[in-house]
Amino acid sequence: MRYKVTIAYDGTNFAGFQRQPNQRTVESELTKVVNKMAKHPEPAIEVYGSGRTDAGVHALGQVVHFDMPFNLPPDNMRKGLNSMLPMDMEVLAVAQVDETFHARYSVSGKRYLYRMDLGEFRNPFKRNYTGHWKFPVDVDRINEAAKDLIGEHDFTSFVASGSGARTNFRTIYEAGCHLDEANNELVFEFYGNGFLYNQVRIMVGVLVEIGAGTRPVDGIQQLYKLNDRRYARRTVPASGLYLKHVYYEGDDPAHPTKLPKHQR
């Protein structure tokens, strides 16, 4: 029986999502618990995620799937997993799906948010959950520039080395930010059919510089023409990044088509 599982996690004490030797990762913790629930079958059960998140990156709605050797009601699965998972992880929802569903290859889109604290100094109670920017910014200027991210583009200037992607073309459907006055934060949100290695963190770095006036409003268009990562310069900290939602065919009516195979 195949299960689709939506999880949230605090990425502070994880070395990212993907399993790594001698490292605490989200995938390794979840795999350990799933196999314990299944009484350690042979071969061991594999857990497949919608994609990787880096060390320090959080998730509000990461999705994984795995195949269990027996049929357990979804709510019992949710309760059982949560009773064994560490305190910085939580299973939010469980659904039984057919064998054609794949947490990674069935994805049609992803939504990320980024929280940027605007305090004069770094807040010790927010340091693991926000980025930090102490200079004045113009939110309208940022949102004007963010319009240039929307659509299909070659994001070579916005991808870190070591990406491994077949192509740097991606499509962004929504991009922008708003001021959360209560928490003195800029909150960025991006929704697209997929994102490259460090792409969101680089885009935020460019946008805050535009908002601060150290880049022109058409700075994103200039970066498309330059097609060179060095000119984007800044990568904001992982601590402020959250994978908010993963969309699949059927639950994303505006953009129902999964990511083209050459872009996965």
Automatic annotation (TrEMBL):
GO terms for molecular function: RNA binding; tRNA pseudouridine(38-40) synthase activity. The keyword ATP-binding does not apply. Its EC number is 5.4.99.12. It catalyses: uridine(38/39/40) in tRNA = pseudouridine(38/39/40) in tRNA. The keyword GTP-binding does not apply. Keywords: Isomerase, tRNA processing. Substrate binds at residue 112. GO terms for biological process: tRNA pseudouridine synthesis. Coiled coil: none annotated. Pfam families: PseudoU_synth_1. Formation of pseudouridine at positions 38, 39 and 40 in the anticodon stem and loop of transfer RNAs. NCBIfam families: hisT_truA. PANTHER family: PSEUDOURIDYLATE SYNTHASE, TRNA PSEUDOURIDINE SYNTHASE-LIKE 1. Belongs to the tRNA pseudouridine synthase TruA family. Homodimer. This is tRNA pseudouridine synthase A.
